[in-house]
Amino acid sequence: MPHTLEWSRAYTHRLSPSDAEHLKVKAVSLAKRLAKETSAGELPFLTMPYRSRLEKEMPPLLPRVRACKHMLVLGIGGSALGARAMQQAFASGQDGPGHAGPWLWIADNVCAERFEALLSKLNPADTMVVCISKSGGTIETLSQYFLVRAWLQASMGEAWPEHMIVVTDIAKGYLREEAGRHNLASLDVPDYLGGRYSALSAVGLLPAAFLGIDWQALLDGAASVAQPLAQTPESLADHPSFALACWARALEEHAYNQLIFFCYIPQWAAYGDWFAQLWAESLGKEGQGTQPVPATGVTDQHSINQMFLSGPRNKGCLFLTSDGQDPGRSFGMDLPDKWSWLKGKPFGSLLEAEAVGTRMALCKNGVPLLHVRMADNGPQAAGALMMLLEAATVFTGWLMDINPLDQPAVELGKRLANARLGAQGYTQEEKDLADYLAVPKEEQTF
Ligand code: PA5
Questions:
Q1: Average pLDDT, the chain
Q2: Which CATH architecture has domain 4-35+219-400?
Q3: Of the candidates 133, 135, 64, 76, which has an alpha carbon nearest to the alpha carbon of residue 106?
Q4: Is this model's pTM higher than 0.85 or not?
Q5: Residue nearest to ligand 1 atom 3, measured at CA
Q6: CATH topology match: 4-35+219-400 vs 46-213
Q7: CA of 360 to the centre of ligand 1 (A)
Q8: Protein residue whose Cα sits closest to atom 9 of ligand 1
């Protein structure tokens, strides 16, 4: 069974199909760009030239990795969110009762308290640390690397490199130098594969493989969506990712500046954060873009859904369901009369019914909605969805005339933080920071 995009409620309210016509005609020139960039190797998330190397280099590492009960991932942003989404979707055992391992811990913050809680409880001898950074120089990740390296060294002395793997650029960056210096096992993040497009490389797949997730199926699913684009770029106009991009851009042009990612596959909820980062960092440029709003069905029906339904009419919605949800156990026939309509029904019928109800309510309340209907919810389906969304993000960026692969705006905060920490070479930032902090405070206590 194929996965489907259901369009009947997508061009509604302030949006009509004709609003996307001027975007769809751009398919011809964008197809040429796609052909050029794929053949120049500039879109490796799509062409996946790294797959054969990964298939060769990762499996030999797995026995050593799986010999440990714990994996501690150090990474942030695109170097963390894909792994977390896959863990939650396909190996969420450690959040439930009776789990006997393996355990994956993703340290994607600089919370000293949480970090101490991890290091004080984990046994270094039973932990494989995986330090993931494409640039090899991200301060949040590197600072954790230094602390964890000392933690490993303190416990196992010169043998510490056996418990560390790095995933980083093939040639550049501090982490790559560290790998060389200490003879650390390493896997590559290929050229042009930016963080938020890298979940289906070693970045996300090494943690996935540790958890026993079928990482080849994730790649197969992604390849099935990418293949027509990579092999026949001239068919761009017919590809669902391009249709999605045209819709997303048309939404923005009609003052829908928020895009809800409403996930009615509850175990896939963490894909909401993965998508939000992909979409926001790729498309928030030059005063443009739509704010991604991740939400989970049915939980958020009792939370932010009120705002979706009755707040500003500025939202479109990607509404995600799966036909393969486990229906679960059924209600007994002895329910009280008041609830008799549930007798014999499977618990899963609630999710289906509430998804229909919420979809219709959104449609009736001014929210253009594209229903992404997955045939099932296995790793192959997830790989297909990830590729669809990554490709759609890039094409939306092209339609906006911005670069969806960079993130220049976030650099300022990083430079100022470096200046604050006393790093060399930030004279102007130090001065700017001093000016900023010199502004008299207007404080109110509570
Ligand atoms: O998507 C991106 O490019 C970013 O979110 C990065 O993943 C994040 O900044 C971490 O970068 P790096 O992998 O270089 O440490």
A1: 97
A2: 3-Layer(aba) Sandwich (3.40)
A3: 76
A4: yes
A5: 195
A6: yes
A7: 37
A8: 77
